[in-house]
Amino acid sequence: MHRKFRNGSLSELHIKDEKLNRIVRFIALPIGMLCASIAQAKDDCKVIDASSQVEQCVKADREDADAKLNASYKKLMARFESRWKRGSEQRKAYMATAKDSQRAWIKLRDTTCPLEATHVEQGSPTHTLVIDKCIARLSLERAAYLDAIVSDGTSEVVDMAEVSASASQRFGDVVARYVTTYGSPCLNVQILAPDGHWRVLSSRRFCSFAGKAFWTDYADAGFEDHAFAEDGLHVTLSLTELRAPGEKRLACVIPIQDEQIKELKCGAPEST
Residue 123 pLDDT > 70, yes or no? Predict the structure, then answer.
């Protein structure tokens, strides 16, 4: 005889619990597989063995390209904000133009890529695959295009006729170089690969301080006393405000760590 409980016998409760456990296991299995597939997606794309992997990897490439495009667009708008004063008509016009241009380009991309898939059956996995590959390719091209507008980066090619000062120093397996040019207050810093025909691995262009552009927000600005040390490039930043009297001089360093050029760090103004 089974012991009775309010909701049935002990055996009945055991059967219900077993059914519930089966349901939980049934739900948990695909969720666990989904989490594992997301975590290993990039590794899986290194070696593709099945057509299902191709679809997954192309979709991941499209999402990565979209993320890079969005980041490039936001950086472009930020460059407009830092280069021109808040409220200026020129800044408003440039930002409005960039916004309209981006919207029009996205519409063009999304209506152009289906043309590349006209040779396959609409709605099929291959149809989606071709469109995703097209969108990923065009998005990366657009991101590179936006990065070159009002660029904060320095070109890999340096016109030696324009160079006013330059020096370099080795940091581990790479070489760091700074370059200044005539007529510009900006400082260009590059990381070079000495064993790769001096290819530029990364670069940064310093043309502002504390969110204010040298060209428009200071009466005078520029870097002096460049000197490499173990922790990076040490410089003196000279600033003259538009309305405040006198020159302000800051002892600064651009750290170079792990083959990367870090943010400019400055101490308190020097006494004059």
Answer: yes
Considering 58-62, 217-221, 237-241, the range whose residues carry the highest mean pLDDT is 237-241
Quote the CA–CA distance of 102 and 162 in Å, as a whole number: 34
Burial of 65 (0-12, 13-18, 19+ CB in 10 A): buried
Q: Write down the domain spans for the chain.
A: 4-39, 51-147, 160-269
Cα separations (Å) of 236 from 84, 99, 192, 251, 266? 24, 38, 24, 5, 9
Q: Of the candidates 237, 239, 223, which has an alpha carbon nearest to the alpha carbon of residue 187?
A: 223
What distance in Å separates the CA atoms of residue 210 and residue 217, rounded to the nearest whole number? 11
Q: How far is CA 17 from CA 6, 13, 25, 30, 128, in A?
A: 16, 6, 12, 21, 43
Could you give the C-alpha distances from 171 to 1, 115, 138, 190, 234, in angstroms and in order?
83, 49, 36, 12, 14
CA 214 – CA 207 distance, rounded (Å) = 6
From the options 3.40.50.150, 1.20.1270.180, 3.20.20.70, 3.30.430.20, give the CATH code of 51-147: 1.20.1270.180
Q: What angle do CA 143, 86, 142 make, to 5 degrees?
A: 10
Count of all residues that appear for the chain in the document: 272
* 181 — pLDDT class (breaks 50, 70, 90): confident
Stated pTM of the model: 0.45
Q: How confident is the model at residue 82 (pLDDT cuts 50, 70, 90)?
A: confident
